Description:
This protein is mainly alpha-helical. It contains 9 helices and no strands. 68% of the residues lie in helices and 0% in strands.
Amino acid sequence: MDIDFPSDAGPHSEGAAYKPGGWLDKLHHALCTLVEIPAALLVLAEVVVLLMGVTSRYVLHQPLVWSDELASILFLWLAMLGSIVALQRGEHMRMTAIVGKLEPYGRAFLDLVAIAAAIAFLAFVVHPAYEFAQDEAFVTTPAMGIANSWRAAALPVGLGLMLLVGVIQIFRIGALKDALKAIGVVALVVVGMAMLGPLLKPLGNWNLLLFFVVGGGAMVLLGLPIAFSFGLATFGYIALTTGTPTVVVVGRMDEGMSHLILLAVPCLFCSAC
């Protein structure tokens, strides 16, 4: 297993007219600055809040009731910003045992397909994430007494920025025709699965094997980032074979990235946190 995702130092598609210093590069670097500075400040704030909470609880014996809650809110924002940074730097985990043995053009094209697949997943979940944040506006945090949408807003903001970064990356790294070809391949797969949807529902639990073992495994072996591979498998399973609202996917992402128990566990997207 290797951590290798197209980045500034990654391979370019054959014939790519990549020109460092172009407008896409400028936009890319502007987004890097926009994300990395707040992410660094959030790391500092997270350390300070957690240190204050531990000191107050175990040294002063006067616990700060709001410290864990604030740390959880900050960590969700940090996880989402960290996910964007990981995508910009090409540090999302992926398996390249098979991809690495291909010829340069084939390897570069699969790199573009990997970005296109990430774009597809982000496009699918960004609106459910917005709906999730809207629903959380009616919930008030118990300790701080603020709307929970302040925390949940990290999801649509982070996913939206990741979607923008993915679109920029695919056209920065590959030639226009190769980028469009990769997007077309992913679009054909998505449309094909959507058309097969009515035939999949009667399969029942066999869909678990189809989506998570066959589909998820194939995507991982083709070099798609592992998190996005299983994200697509999960979204496809829920959307095509069940009547469960897709906002559930976003809810699980929120639960996995904002709980303090999981602070030491890599979050769903970000392998750099």
